[in-house]
Design brief:
The structure holds two protein chains of two kinds. Chain A is α+β, with helices and mostly antiparallel strands. Chain A has two domains: 232 residues, P-loop containing nucleotide triphosphate hydrolases (Rossmann fold, 3-Layer(aba) Sandwich), CATH 3.40.50; 118 residues, OB fold (Dihydrolipoamide Acetyltransferase, E2P), CATH 2.40.50. Chain A has a six-stranded mixed β-sheet, with helices on both faces. In chain A, strands 13-12-11-14-20 form a five-stranded antiparallel β-sheet, with no helix packed on it. In chain A, a hairpin with a 4-residue loop joins β11 and β12. The longest helix of chain A is centred in the middle third of the chain and has 18 residues. By secondary structure, chain B is mostly helical. Chain B has a domain of 255 residues: MetI-like fold. In chain B, the strands form two sheets. Chain B has a two-stranded antiparallel sheet. Chain B has a two-stranded antiparallel ribbon with strand order 3-4. In chain B, α4 packs across α14. Chain B starts with a helix and ends in a 10-residue tail after the last helix. Classes of the chains: A alpha+beta, B mainly alpha. Chains A and B meet through α1, α2 and α4 of A and α9 and α10 of B.
Chain lengths: 363, 562
């Protein structure tokens, strides 16, 4: 995780936004610390782009406050806010060269010619486009266009950089490369950045913190590990990676022994008790496919082991994916590095569920 | 060897072979027939005009052209026409841009009303504005008498004003289209980087829209210099090419000079047609995909909003007043002199007869036009023969050809056998069919591009021959384009004046010609009432067209016929 100060750079307070009668932002509040990269992630229509546009000044909020570095900015037009946006489609000016695009804002700020040139060179170097300043935009590849858009947004040294799905127009390999480069650049410049994406894995791999949004509200804010390991509800658990849910009722909780058990359709399961779980609670056990151990013979020294039958087995090389039925309950299992132990349909297998699973309360 | 035997074509009788040949070559045969039609009814008349202009008593001569350039009158006519074109285009582009900017970027409350007003002239024949100007500023005009305005309406300025009002929607529509297609994120990015509204317009909007604006300008220019009605009604003693051609032929029966004027008029039109279609294609900036987020209306600074509003409101007001005047004149004895409300103009027998005749001619033209347009679109898109793009070019060129030239051409070409058409209804319909083909063909082409060729291949795979596939698969799918071509041809034909004015025979008057005569002879009530009837008919057509567009989700952009 990047080291950043705890001073908030951006504060969002109770932001509401309506389109006609539809409430697209339902009182969003959060803060972004200086130098932090925060990702807004969620399914389409969750309000993440609208929230970004509210911060940038392209969409007016109906109530609430946007505070940038201690100053209210929500009443200001975009050009008077110290935030710069990089649109999903880059919005590069197609009738200008790379250098003209990058220097557009500098010229408006009436920089001296020599200084502009110097700054453009510096920015081109920063995004690894040295020597391409004279190119027209349509002579660039998608990745290069992405870099120009970044350089242009960085040209005026904004306090907050806003990136709206910046990688969605690149092919898969380039996306991975650019993801890494954006992160490297951001950490080097220590620039506070908000990154909007619908791709949960992109969010996981690039962020200091992730904001999971759904239907105009924030579901959870946390580090990638927190979001993955300790999702606060079913939606988040299912949104970041696949998950097996198992309904159950807590039988007993023993804080002293750090032990708890729950009755489930497949039998009693032991788990490590979490914060507010007590006996009698209806719960949902959150079991990630890669945490379940699968073997052909009954393993020794493992709790929570159940016998089941393979329904579907798919060999993908680095791992094998199974659907296993235990007493009518379906489980998805990822077996890393399967090699010779690959199980075929209708084979009997033993599944061991770990004790340090996450538990959600059911309503 | 058994293998060799299978390679020998199965023996069939002659009839079978001819049938197979026709089936295999049907699309090419169809293309040949269509090309023949285009050649006879579009190229041959123009060629006839060209020949007439260089054929003296002793064979080839340039004497008529020399006369044109030596005699100041003719040359002034050319200069006037071009000057009119430039002024009119400039004004229409400025007004069109202001209105389009407001309806796409301006306050939401203003968008709809401005859009409706700027489109109003589209439902009117262009000469409506000449009539309304006569009502207001003519010798006995309301403004002339009320304020003693000594503006001589008949002449250059009158024509410019009428033409400008008539062609605002064309400029508006095309500019609005390009403004809408501009990714809003581009302007937002400039805004984000600190640019002011004026700077955004200057450095982003206009440079990016330049090709589109230029295209709109070229179209307005062609339409203006070719337009006959306004210049003929309001031109007075100021010479313009289109009405002078009419005077030469109808007034003095001087076919040679009439042809020379036509050739002179058609040259800039052809140049512009090529510029419009070929120079500017591909000059479009491509940007990366991804959703361009529709922006909320940006707050336009007063520096931009106030002048834009002023220009738009002035033009809008002039358009509304023009309509109101013609409407009022239809129902009053003599508007401004005797304001007694009467229905005599509306009930006028000759006016109604002319309307009926126009509907007849337009229906014939629409039916033929829609059929030819659909077939042309099909052979252009699906055919693989040599000269396909040439056929496409010819069939789209009609809009660039001045109606007066086609009128003379038909007069010269079809007055004698082998094809004698003069005096009949067909000659009135056919000239419109071929001039207004472009929209039907374009609608057909765009529809066909939506239809995957595999659908037709699947049909033939299941055993259907070309005719069956065409009849059962292609035609039903292209039906919306057929209807669009039908209605478009109908409504442009019914208001069209410039060509038919040469071709009407005494016993069979058309509404547009009736209006023209009435306007020239000062029967303003009759002219207005007949014009309003045409407006109503065009509105009905637009409503149907709009319904089809919505129903089938396919867009044909209405262009203005002259």
């Amino acid at each position: 995780m990047a080291v950043h100060s705890s001073v908030p750079m951006l504060n969002l307070i109770e932001i509401h936004k309506f389109y006609d009668r539809l409430e697209v932002l339902k009182g969003v509040s959060m803060e972004v610390k200086k130098g932090e990269l925060v990702t807004f992630v969620g399914p389409s229509g969750c309000g993440k782009t609208t929230l970004l546009r509210v911060i940038g000044g392209f969409t007016n909020l109906d109530s609430g406050e946007v505070i940038l570095d201690g100053q209210k900015i929500h009443h200001l037009p975009p050009n008077l806010r110290d935030t710069r946006i990089c649109f999903q489609n880059y919005a590069l000016f197609p009738h200008m060269t790379v250098a003209d695009n990058i220097s557009y804002g500098l010229k408006i700020k009436k920089w001296k010619k020599a200084k502009i040139q110097e700054r453009v060179e510096e920015l081109l170097k920063l995004v690894q486009l040295e020597g391409l300043g004279g190119r027209m935009i349509d002579k660039l590849s998608g990745g290069q266009q992405q870099r120009v858009a970044l350089a242009r947004a960085l040209s005026l040294e904004p306090k907050v950089l806003l990136l709206d799905e910046p990688l969605s127009n690149l092919d898969a390999n380039l996306r991975l490369t650019m993801r890494g480069e954006i992160r490297k650049l951001q950490e080097r410049l220590k620039i506070t950045t908000i990154f909007v994406t619908h791709d949960q894995f992109e969010a996981m791999s690039i962020s200091d913190r992730i904001v999971v949004m759904k239907e105009g509200g924030i579901q959870q804010v946390g580090s990638p590990i927190e979001i993955y390991e300790r999702p606060t509800n079913e939606f988040i658990a299912g949104f970041v990676g696949f998950v097996n849910f198992l309904d159950g009722v807590v039988d007993r909780v023993d804080i002293g022994l750090n032990k708890a058990t729950a009755s489930t359709p497949i039998g009693i399961i032991q788990f490590l008790p979490e914060r507010n779980i007590s006996a009698g609670d209806k719960v949902k056990l959150v079991i990630r496919p890669e945490t379940i151990n699968i073997s052909g013979s009954e393993p020794t020294g493992m709790n929570n082991t159940f016998q089941g039958e393979v329904e579907i087995g798919m060999y993908v090389g680095s791992l094998a994916k199974y659907t296993v039925m235990i007493k009518g309950e379906k489980f998805i299992i990822d077996q890393p590095n399967p090699r010779e132990t690959f199980f075929k349909p209708r084979e009997k297998v033993y599944l061991s569920i770990p004790e340090n699973i996450h538990v959600l309360k059911r309503n | 060897m058994a293998r060799a035997e299978t390679l020998i074509a199965p023996q069939t009788n002659l009839v079978e072979r001819i049938k197979n040949f026709i089936n295999a070559e049907l699309i090419n045969i169809l293309a040949a027939i269509l090309f023949l039609l285009l050649a006879v009814f579009l190229l041959y008349p123009i060629f006839a005009v060209l020949i007439k202009s260089i054929k003296g008593p002793q064979g080839f001569t340039l004497s008529y052209y020399i006369k044109f350039f030596i005699k100041g009158y003719y040359f002034r006519s050319l200069l006037n026409t071009l000057t009119l074109g430039f002024i009119n285009t400039a004004v229409c582009l400025v007004v069109g841009f202001c209105m389009a900017y407001l309806t796409t970027r301006g306050p939401l409350a203003l968008r709809k009303p401005f859009k409706i007003i700027s489109m109003m002239p589209l439902i009117a024949p262009p000469y409506l504005f000449a009539i309304s100007l006569i009502i207001l500023f003519g010798h006995n005009g309301i403004m002339t008498k009320a304020f003693g305005i000594k503006w001589s309406l008949y002449g250059f300025t009158g024509v410019v004003v009428a033409q400008t009002l008539a062609f605002i929607p064309l400029a508006y529509l095309m500019i609005e289209n390009t403004l809408k297609s501009l990714n809003p994120n581009l302007e937002e990015s400039a805004y984000d980087l600190g640019a002011s509204e004026v700077r955004i317009i200057r450095t982003i909007t206009i440079p990016l829209l330049a090709p589109g604006i230029l295209k709109a300008g070229l179209l307005v220019f062609v339409m203006t210099i070719a337009e006959f009605g306004n210049a003929a009604i309001l031109g007075g003693r100021t010479p313009f090419l289109a009405p002078d051609t009419y005077m030469m032929i109808i007034g003095e029966a001087d076919f040679e000079m009439g042809s020379v004027l036509s050739v002179v008029l058609i040259i800039p039109c052809i140049i512009i047609f090529f510029l419009h279609n070929y120079m500017l294609t591909g000059k479009k900036f491509t940007t990366i995909g991804g959703k361009p987020v529709a922006s909320e209306p940006r707050k336009i600074t007063p520096f931009v909003q106030i002048p834009f509003l002023l220009i738009s409101c002035t033009a809008g007001l002039a358009i509304i007043i023009s309509f109101a005047m013609v409407l009022a004149a239809s129902f009053t004895k003599i508007l401004g002199i005797n304001n007694q409300i009467v229905l005599t103009h509306i009930k006028n027998f000759n006016s109604n007869l002319a309307i009926l005749n126009s509907i007849k001619v337009s229906l014939v033209a629409a039916l033929i036009g829609a059929i030819i347009g659909t077939l042309l679109a099909y052979v252009i898109v699906r055919g693989k023969f040599f000269g396909r793009s040439f056929i496409e070019m010819i069939s789209l060129s009609g809009f660039a050809l001045p109606g007066t030239v086609i009128g003379i051409g038909y007069l010269l070409a079809f007055n004698n056998p082998p094809i004698k058409l003069t005096g009949g209804i067909m000659i009135l319909a056919l000239n419109c069919v071929f001039r207004f083909l472009a929209v039907g063909v374009e609608a057909g082409i765009s529809k066909l591009h939506q239809i995957n060729i595999e659908i037709e291949e699947a049909s033939s795979d299941l055993g259907a021959n070309f005719m069956t596939t065409f009849y059962r698969i292609v035609l039903p799918l292209m039906f919306p384009a057929f209807i669009a071509g039908f209605i478009y041809t109908f409504m442009t034909t019914i208001v069209s004046l410039s060509a038919v004015v040469f071709l009407v025979s005494p016993g069979f008057e058309l509404a547009a010609v009736r209006i023209f005569d009435a306007a020239v002879y000062g029967e303003i009530g009759i002219a207005s009432a007949t014009t309003m009837k045409l407006v109503v008919i065009v509105i009905i057509c637009m409503v149907i067209l709009n319904y089809i567009t919505k129903k089938t989700g396919f867009d044909i952009s209405p262009k203005k016929g002259v």
